[in-house]
Design brief:
This protein is of the alpha+beta class. The protein has 7 helices and 7 strands; from the N terminus they run ααααβαββαββαββ.
């Protein structure tokens, strides 16, 4: 019962307006490399499945859905996906290790990508998107971009409600995935409790 109360209080203390979004100055990794620790840089540019890597550091890996549904996309997201439509399917989740949020993830896809082979992406539920992407034999991934999220960003605002660990900035990465000829953009921001900052 107390867990339910705590979960409810945590949700009520989060930013009221969803989706959170991932607006940032996205750059090629080499531009920021000198300003990052070797550990953080390694997490940011790792091309393998983040889900699989995270599972190595916990007993229980869980996905908490913050929002999913049809929402407006940013101009930057539309450019990355080569879209003219303003609305896409947006899914924002927390990836938790033993109950502790390590990653905020935002997935954006054209509405026609929802029925791509490998699973109906809008019906993932509490499964990680990575379980679908990295099990698809024809999946292709674009080069990774990385970005800094400072104290003025909405992702940072969310993170400040989830942990008491102070941090100057958060860092994330994004890339496009091509699945059955349809593109989706996945952004992942490491939260303060993540091993990436240790």
């Amino acid at each position: 019962m107390s867990d339910n109360i705590n979960n409810k209080q945590m949700r009520e203390s989060r930013p009221a307006h969803y989706p959170i979004g991932c607006d940032a100055n996205w750059l090629w990794p080499t531009i920021l490399a000198e300003n990052l620790s070797a550990s953080l840089f390694d997490w940011l540019v790792d091309t393998g499945s983040l889900t699989a890597r995270l599972k190595q550091y916990c007993q229980a890996f869980t996905v908490e859905i913050l929002i999913e549904g049809n929402y407006p996309l940013s101009d930057d997201e539309k450019t990355k996906l080569n879209l003219t439509e303003n609305i896409g399917f947006v899914r924002e989740v927390l990836l938790k290790l033993d109950g502790i949020p390590w990653v905020f993830a935002r997935s954006v896809m054209p509405l026609n990508a929802l029925t791509a082979p490998g699973g109906e992406l809008e019906k993932l539920g509490e499964r990680s998107l990575g379980t679908v992407l990295f099990s698809a034999p024809d999946m292709q991934r674009s080069e990774i971009e990385i970005a800094e999220f400072d104290a003025h960003s909405r992702v940072y605002e969310l993170a400040s409600q989830l942990t008491s660990i102070p941090t100057m900035s958060l860092f994330g990465r994004r890339s496009c995935f091509l699945l059955a000829g349809k593109s989706l953009l996945v952004s992942e921001v490491f939260l303060p409790d993540a091993l990436a900052y240790k």
